[in-house]
Write a structure and sequence with these properties.
Layout: E1 3-4, E2 10-11, H1 15-37, E3 40-49, E4 54-66, E5 70-72, H2 74-84, H3 87-102, E6 110-114, H4 117-121, H5 125-136, E7 143-147, H6 157-169, E8 172-178, H7 184-190, E9 195-198, H8 200-203, H9 210-225, E10 229-232, H10 238-247, E11 251-252, E12 261-262, H11 266-271
Parallel strand pairs: 4-6, 6-7, 7-8, 8-9, 9-10, 10-11
Antiparallel strand pairs: 1-2, 3-4, 3-11, 3-12, 4-5
Helix pairs in contact: 1-2, 3-5
The protein binds ligand C2E and magnesium ion (MG) (3 copies).
One magnesium ion binds at residues 176-177, 197, 233.
Protein name: EAL domain-containing protein
Domain EAL: 24-274
C-alpha cells in the first residue's frame, strides 16, 4: 500500500511487513530454484517389521541443501511449498525419485511417500503416480502413500475417489500422524487404510505413562479389528520397543533402529545384520 511521507515522497511498503514478506518471498523463489537446479534429495528411514523380523519399508523424507543457508528442515519449507502451490511440482519430483530408487531394492521392501493435501486434490494425481511407477519400473504394490487426515478437511468425496483409484492399482495407503487431529476415528470409517501410523507424541511416553500406553494399546486393538497394520513413529529406546512389541504393534520406525539415511546406503542396510532385538 502506498504511503505518503511528509515530503510528498511515496513509500510503497510498511517496513515491518516488508521484512517478513520479503523473507517468505525469497524462500519461495529459492524453493522454485531448488527444484530446477536439483538441490533436493531424498533420505530414507527404515520401518522395521516386528513379525517378520526384517525391514519391510523405507519412508522417503525430503531434504533440501540450500546453497547459502545449508540444510533447511521440511518443517520449515514444506508449509511454504504448500501455501504457494509449489508442493505439487516438488511432490511430483519426490514421487518419481522415490519410485526410481526403490526399484533397485529387493522386491519385499516397499517405499512410503508423504503426500500433501494439495497434491491429492490435483485431478492428475493418479496419473502422476502411474507415470512415476512406470518410468521408475516399480510395481504398484511396493508403493505406500502416506496421507494425514488434513486431506479430508475440505470434504471427503474427491479424496475417497482418488484413494479408491490408488487402491485399485494396488498402491497401499497409510494414515500418518494418527491421533493428532480433530476427528481421527471418523476417518477410519471412511476408508479401509492399509496402515495406521501412531504419532510419536503417544510413543514418546508409552513405556512410562499409563495413559499413553492405554492409548497406544487401544489404537493397536482398533487397527487389528479393522484389519489395518500399525507403525509406531519416533521409537527412540529399547523400553518403548519392548512395550510396543508386547502390545502387538506391527512395525516400528525411529532413531532407535535408524535415523533417515542416504539413498545409496539403503541396499547395504537391507543386506546388513540389523535386527530389532540388537
Ligand atoms: P512424517 O511423515 O511424520 O515423518 C517422520 C518424521 O519424524 C521425519 O522428520 C523423521 O526424520 C522424524 N523421526 C523419525 N524417527 C524419529 C525419532 O525417533 N525421533 C525424532 N525426534 N524424530 C524422528 P522429517 O524428515 O524432518 O520430516 C518432517 C515432516 O515433513 C514429515 O513428517 C512429513 O510430514 C514432512 N515431509 C517430509 N518429506 C516430505 C515429502 O516428500 N512430501 C511431503 N508432502 N511432506 C514431507
Ligand atoms: Mg510420513
Ligand atoms: Mg508421520
Ligand atoms: Mg509425524
Amino acid at each position: 500500500r502506498a504511503k505518503q511521507d511528509g515530503r510528498g515522497v511515496f513509500r510503497f511498503f510498511e517496513p515491518a511487513l516488508d521484512a517478513a514478506a520479503r523473507r517468505r518471498r525469497q524462500l519461495e523463489l529459492d524453493l522454485r530454484e531448488a527444484l530446477f537446479t536439483g538441490q533436493f534429495r531424498l533420505n530414507y528411514q527404515p520401518i522395521f517389521d516386528l513379525a517378520r523380523d526384517r525391514i519391510g519399508c523405507f519412508e522417503a523424507l525430503l531434504r533440501w541443501q540450500h546453497p547459502s543457508r545449508g540444510n533447511i528442515p521440511p518443517a520449515e519449507f514444506i508449509p511454504v511449498a504448500e501455501e504457494t502451490g509449489l508442493i505439487v511440482a516438488i511432490g511430483e519430483w519426490v514421487m518419481h525419485e522415490a519410485c526410481r530408487q526403490a526399484a533397485a531394492w529387493p522386491a519385499h521392501v516397499r517405499v512410503a511417500v508423504n503426500v500433501s493435501p494439495l497434491q491429492f486434490r490435483n485431478s492428475g494425481f493418479s496419473n502422476i503416480i502411474v507415470q512415476a511407477l512406470t518410468r521408475g519400473g516399480l510395481s504398484a504394490d511396493r508403493l505406500e502413500v502416506e496421507i494425514t487426515e488434513s486431506v479430508f478437511l475440505d470434504g471427503e468425496n474427491g479424496v475417497l475417489q482418488v484413494l479408491h483409484q490408488l487402491r485399485a492399482m494396488g498402491v497401499r495407503i497409510a494414515l500418518d500422524d494418527f491421533g493428532t487431529g480433530y476427528s481421527s476415528l471418523s476417518y477410519l470409517r471412511s476408508f479401509p487404510f492399509d496402515k495406521i501410523k501412531i504419532d510419536k507424541s503417544f510413543v514418546d511416553l508409552v513405556a512410562q505413562d499409563p495413559s499413553s500406553a492405554a492409548i497406544v494399546h487401544a489404537i493397536v486393538d482398533l487397527a487389528r479389528a479393522l484389519k489395518m497394520e500399525t507403525t509406531a513413529e519416533g521409537v527412540e529406546d529399547r523400553d518403548q520397543l519392548n512395550e510396543l512389541r508386547d502390545q502387538g504393534c506391527s512395525s516400528i520406525q525411529g532413531f532407535w533402529f535408524s535415523r533417515p539415511i542416504e539413498g545409496d546406503a539403503v541396499l547395504a542396510m537391507i543386506a546388513g545384520p540389523m535386527s530389532a532385538a540388537a
